[in-house]
Structure formats: structure tokens, C-alpha cells
Amino acid sequence: MKKAKILALILVASLMLTGGAYALWNQSVELTTSAAMGEMDVGFTCDKCIYPLTLLPGIAGGSYGYGYSHTYGDYENYMNPLTGTVSADKQTLTVTVGKMYPGAKYGLNFAIENSGDVPFKLQGVTITRTDGNADLFARLKGSFTFMYQDANGAMQQRTVAASALTTAGLGEAIVTACSDIVVYPGAQIIGYANQDNVTTIMQVSVDDTISGDEFENDSATFTVDFNWQQCAPVAVH
Amino acid sequence: MRSVRFLTKLISFVLSAVVLSIGIMGVSYSYFTGVNRISSDVSMGSIDVIFSNIEVVPDSAADPSCTTKARIADNGKRIEIDIENARPGGTSVISYEVTNNGTVPVVYELKPSIVEEQSPVSLNICASSCCIKENGGQAWGQIVVTVGDSIDGLRSYDLDTELNFQQSTVEGS
């Protein structure tokens, strides 16, 4: 019985000691972490956006008549309308070109700018005819000439030869040409410029073998979608 | 008993593969993506040249019994000329006006007249200009029909000619 009392006393004493320890000063430090996601923001920028790349001769000279005085004049642009505008969110470039003719060619001069926080690459290009004459659309060709900044900050040039305006044609050719290009935050893909002239980044031409009255007053509407993707993350060990 | 174990293992393996695939798809889908679009509308122009006026030029020296009639047909795409009581050595002159209602300038591409072999009747075209402006530009010319000396008085002759126009040449800027 005496042993039991001693044990009970030890137990009570132990509990008191524990309570005492718990009552000692204690302090914790807090680590607050906030993880904000980056933003992928890629958009078009351009001033005039669209340029005629072919011209036809104008008419110069005096009045018509039997004096045979008329001759060719300076070359003129006959495309009308010829407009290109970028939407407010910079996601869409809308182009309207009228009064084209066999052999006619126009160019789009725009920049694709990474104004976000993450680098990205071109994942795919989808070209779709959305309306108009399918046969005329098949007689259009597209090509690209552009410059970009490589990983060392040096400007490099790439050219994609003219090919059919299809996803499998021009679309895949662009993706192949851009397969190793990373567009870093703040970087741009732009038209190639040299001292004397500006070569537009994208060129569209009408087949110059169209003859007779084929495709007169016809039209074709199409879209070119550039699909961008954040670069694949690399694990750091 | 053994086949039941095998089946169980197979089902487990397939389920694991499906779960893993879905997991990988989820990771890929979580990448940032963006799309930029170029939306284009391309319309073609046209060439539309018509005979807009013709006129038979009077010839006081011609035999009064020889008459020349000309008219525009096929919505301006053709002119028909009838010459009656033609005499050897006689000529008929028809002035014409052409208008380009198309959207690009055109140039003449004159082709030789198609006539019967050894025909005594010849046809010459004189154009006022090598090129015609777009959107209503005009040019004038003359068609001269000449009857040769060896004409057969009892025969009639058919002549056919074309005025061809084509888009002028393209130049890169």
C-alpha cells in the first residue's frame, strides 16, 4: 500500500513537471509563402500592317485619239481596299484586300511580341478557308521572312519558302522553321529589314498562271492561327 | 487459378497505365497556351472591255450603191459589219470606241484576222492606244475593210477578227 502511494506521488509529480515544461517560454517563426502565376501574353503589333508588293503600269500621256499619244505611266497600286488592323486585345489581325489579279502579291508587316512573363514557342499553325471560292483559295500561296532574337541576344533571320496556304503546307513549314525558336519575355518576331527596304513578315500571292476570266470577281476568306505554348519546364537538380 | 491471377494482374496494369496517362495529360494541359489569328479576305478584280460605240465613216468617193452597216452585239463583246454591193478596190471604214469597265488597266493584244484562204477581202485594225485605263478608261480605233481587185461578183465573204485585251504586266515593288 505504501508502494502504491509512492507510485501515485511520482505520477503526480511527473505530470506537474510536464506542465511546468510546457509553461516555459516558447516561440515559433512563421514562413508565409505566396505563389503568383506568370502570364503568357503574346500579341500582334503593327503600324500600317499591309503593303502592296506588286504594281501595274498606269496610263500617262495626252488625250486619247488618233494621235496615239498615250503611253504607259508610272506603276500604280490597284488593290483596293488594302487594309490591315489589329484588334484591341492584339490577338487578331484582320486583313481585307480587294481587286487582286493574277500575279498580285501583298505583304503583312507585323511583330509578334511576348509581353508576358514566360517564354513560349510555336506549337502549331492552323490555316483554314472559312468562306469563298475554294479553287481560288487553292491558287493562293504564302511565305514568311522574319527575324528573331536568339538566346545570346543576336538577331537571326529565317525564311519559309512560298507554299500552298494549308495547314499541311505553309503551316507545317512555319512550325518546322520555328522549332528551335524561343520567344523570351520582351522579345519579338519581326519582319526582316535592311537598309533600303522592309521585307514584310508574311507574303500572300495569287497564282500568275490564272488566265482568261477565271476567278474574276471571286473571293476567298481564310484564317491563319498561330498556336503558342509556354516552353516545357526543365527540372533543376 | 493461375489464369485468374494473370487476369487480375493485367487489369491492374491497364488501370495503372490509364491513370498514369490521364495524369500526364493533366500536366500537359496545364501549360500556358495562346492563339493569335490573322483573318484575311481576298477579293479578285476583273477585266471587262466592251465596244461602247461604233460609227461607219462616210466615204464620198465610194460607190453610192455600196452600203456598210455595223452594229454592236453580245453586250458589247462583238461588232457585226455587213458590206453590200462591194466593188473591187472599195474600202469601208468603221470607227469604234472601247471602254474598260474592269479594275485593272489592259493592253491590246491584236491577233491577225481570220479570213478565207486567198480571200480578196482584207481587214486591218488601227488602235489609238496600246493600253486602256481601268474603271471606264476608253480607247478608239478604226477597222478598215478593203476589197481586192479579184473579187468575185457573185460571192459573199466572211471575215472574223478579235480584239483581245489582257491585264498589263505585273511588277514587284
Low-confidence stretches of chain A: none
The secondary-structure element order of chain A is HEEEEEEEEEHEEHEEE
Label the overall shape of chain A.
rod-shaped
Profile the largest sheet of chain A. 8 strands, antiparallel
Largest interface, counted with CB-CB under 8 A? A-B, 74 and 40 residues
Give the structural class of chain B.
alpha+beta
End-to-end Cα distance of chain B: 82 Å
Care to count the β-strands of chain B?
Answer: 13
Q: What proportion strand of chain B?
A: over 45%
Spatial shape of chain B:
elongated
How are the strands of the largest sheet of chain B arranged? 2-5-10-8
Integer-rounded radius of gyration of chain B: 36 Å
If you average the pLDDT of chain A, what whole number results?
86
Q: How many DSSP E strands of chain A?
A: 14
Structural class of chain A: alpha+beta
Question: Percent of residues of chain A in helical segments?
Answer: 10-25%
**Number of domain modules of chain B:** 2
Sum this structure up briefly.
Chain A is α+β, with helices and mostly antiparallel strands. Chain A has helices spanning 2-22, 134-138, 167-177; strands at residues 42-45, 50-52, 54-60, 71-76, 82-86, 92-100, 105-108, 111-114, 120-132, 140-149, 155-164, 188-191, 202-206, 219-230. In chain A, the strands form four sheets. In chain A, strands 1, 2, 7, 8, 10, 11, 12 and 13 form an eight-stranded antiparallel β-sheet that branches. A two-stranded antiparallel ribbon of chain A has the order 3-4.
Folded structure, characterized:
The complex is a heterodimer of chains A (237) and B (173). Chain A has a domain at 42-53 and 100-230. In chain A, 16% of the residues lie in helices and 41% in strands. Chain A contains three helices and 14 strands. Chain A has helices spanning 2-22, 134-138, 167-177; strands at residues 42-45, 50-52, 54-60, 71-76, 82-86, 92-100, 105-108, 111-114, 120-132, 140-149, 155-164, 188-191, 202-206, 219-230. In chain A, the strands form four sheets. In chain A, strands 1, 2, 7, 8, 10, 11, 12 and 13 form an eight-stranded antiparallel beta sheet that branches. In chain A, a hairpin with a 5-residue loop joins strand 10 and strand 11. With 173 residues, chain B is α+β, with helices and mostly antiparallel strands. Chain B has two domains: 1-32; 49-167. In chain B, the strands form four sheets. Chain B has a four-stranded antiparallel beta sheet, with no helix packed on it. A three-stranded antiparallel beta sheet of chain B has the order 9-6-12, with no helix packed on it. A two-stranded antiparallel sheet of chain B has the order 3-4. In chain B, a hairpin with a 4-residue loop joins strand 3 and strand 4. Chain B starts with a helix and ends with a strand. At the A-B interface, strand 1, strand 3, strand 4, strand 6 and strand 9 of A face strand 1, strand 9, strand 10 and strand 13 of B.
